[in-house]
Amino acid sequence: CMMVNFNFKGQIGYVVNNAAVYFSPTTNVPLDAEKAIVDSDFYIHTIATIGGTNPTGVIWDAASGPIVNNRFRFIEVNGANASTVYGQHGIVIKEVGSGHAFYGNNVTCHDLHKFSGTSLLIGDSTTRTDSIFGNNFDVVVSPKGTNAVGVQVYGEKNYIRCSLLNNQGTIKEGVKLESLAKKNSF
Description:
This protein is an all-beta fold and 186 residues long.
């Protein structure tokens, strides 16, 4: 994707075990011989994981190419079906391969709720935290379920603005900074 405007004002109801929405570069962009998702705007109104075992709402995976300078907007990412089957994670940015990165992106979600693991997971291991940087996250976490962690950070130099509303569920840890997460602004 390069300079794509994707505007979906409906609901995605996902009933399997991986991710309801999965962003991963698969095709070379028009101007370069490189796979990437760049300079694009994505809007998806509602994403609901309504079945399966431990599904995830949204995953970004830049292992095959960079994901840079994009805007991602979600009104709701919902991890439960009638409060019985909870998804594992809400929004996940996976660690990326050598030479690739997830940076310069803006991620907004107005209601991220009903997950059993982490609502917002910025990186998923301590192997390479410098590949997720310079992003802006603006997320409202209202668990309405059994969240273990509201926001877990492995990446560096990100701006993270979030509301953690714990009145309708249980968050065991609000913000969890991993050992290599540094220079993030909250």
